[in-house]
Specification:
The protein is of the alpha+beta class. It is built from ten helices and ten strands. It has helices spanning about 35-45, 80-85, 90-105, 115-125, 130-140, 180-195, 195-210, 215-220, 220-230, 235-245, and strands spanning about 5-10, 15-20, 20-25, 55-65, 65-70, 75-80, 150, 160, 165-170, 175-180. The strands form three sheets. A five-stranded antiparallel sheet has the order 1-2-3-5-4, covered by helices on one side. The chain has a three-stranded antiparallel sheet with strand order 6-8-9. The chain has a two-stranded antiparallel ribbon with strand order 7-10.
C-alpha cells in the first residue's frame, strides 16, 4: 500500500509516489484511459532516442480504481531544485538545460501528433472570443510546419540529475513533432509562469546564441503557446496568459515582450 510519506510530487491531475525502484504516477478518477495510454506510449518511444536518458515505462495499471503509470525511479534531484540550491551555478545549469533541448530538437519525428493540427484544436477548445480565435488560427497558418521532435513541456522540473550527474528527461505527455521555435517559446513562457522572469530572458538569450536564431522567430509563437496553456490554466494564470494572447492583435507579434 502506498503511503503519504512516499509522495514525490502533487499536481492538479495526479500524485506521484516512490515505491522502491519504481515511480508510480496515479491519476485522478475520471482521467481518460486513452490519455494515460498515449502518455505511456510516448515515453516508451522516447526511451530509444539517441543520446537521451529517459526513465523506462514498466507498466500501465490501476491503483484503487484509478489509472496509473509505473516507470523506473531515478534517484536524484530535479534541475529546478539544483538551480535554487546552487544559484552560483545557475548559468551552468541553464546551459545544460538548453543543450538537452537542442539534442531533442535534433531528432526527426514522423509518427507523433503534428503541432499545427494540435494547436488549431487547442485554440478551438478555449473560451476566447471568436474574433481572437480567428486571428490565432490565421497567425498559426503563417508559421512554418516542421518535423522536429519537441518535448512540449520542457522546464527544469522535468529534468532529474541522477547520481553521477546523468540528466534524465521526464514527462513526455505533450511530446509532438513541429517547429523547435515553438518548443523554445513554450519553455520561455513556463519560466514566466513560474515567476522566473530574469531566467526566462537569460534562457532566450542563451538559446538564440547557441542556435544563431533571431528571438523574434521564437516570440511570434508566444500568443499560440499562451492559448494552448489557457485551456487548462487556473483563473490567475488565464489573466496573465490573456495578455500574451492579445499580442496577436499587435503587428502580428513581431517579438514584443511585456
Amino acid at each position: 500500500m502506498l503511503k503519504p510519506d512516499r509522495v514525490i510530487a502533487v499536481r492538479n491531475t495526479k500524485i506521484v509516489y516512490r515505491d522502491g525502484n519504481r515511480c508510480i504516477k496515479i491519476f485522478k478518477k475520471g482521467h481518460a484511459k486513452t490519455d494515460i495510454i498515449a502518455e505511456a506510449l510516448n515515453q516508451a518511444m522516447m526511451e530509444n532516442t539517441p543520446g537521451l536518458l529517459v526513465p523506462k515505462i514498466l507498466e500501465v495499471t490501476t491503483v484503487d480504481e484509478k489509472w496509473a503509470i509505473i516507470s523506473e525511479y531515478i534517484r536524484g534531484k530535479p534541475l529546478s531544485r539544483l538551480m535554487e540550491e546552487y544559484p552560483e551555478r545557475k548559468n551552468e545549469y541553464l546551459d545544460l538545460f538548453i543543450d538537452l533541448q537542442l539534442l531533442i530538437h535534433s531528432q526527426t519525428a514522423h509518427t507523433l501528433n503534428e503541432l499545427h493540427e494540435q494547436t488549431h484544436r487547442e485554440i478551438d477548445e478555449t473560451s476566447l472570443g471568436e474574433e481572437v480565435k480567428e486571428l490565432l488560427h490565421k497567425h498559426l497558418d503563417t508559421l512554418p510546419v516542421k518535423n522536429s521532435l519537441c518535448h512540449g513541456d520542457f522546464e527544469p522540473s522535468n529534468i532529474i540529475i541522477a547520481s553521477g550527474s546523468d540528466p534524465y528527461v521526464t514527462d513526455w505527455s505533450h511530446v509532438r513533432r513541429g517547429d523547435p521555435d515553438e518548443d523554445a517559446a513554450r519553455s520561455y513562457l513556463l519560466f514566466w509562469l513560474d515567476g522566473n522572469i530574469g531566467t526566462a530572458e537569460k534562457y532566450l538569450e542563451k538559446y538564440c546564441s547557441k542556435t544563431g536564431n533571431n528571438k523574434n522567430n521564437i516570440l511570434r509563437w508566444i500568443p499560440l503557446v499562451a492559448a494552448s496553456k489557457y485551456v487548462k490554466g487556473n483563473e490567475q494564470q488565464r489573466e496573465f496568459l490573456l495578455s500574451w494572447i492579445n499580442k496577436v492583435n499587435n503587428s502580428e507579434t513581431k517579438g514584443e515582450t511585456q
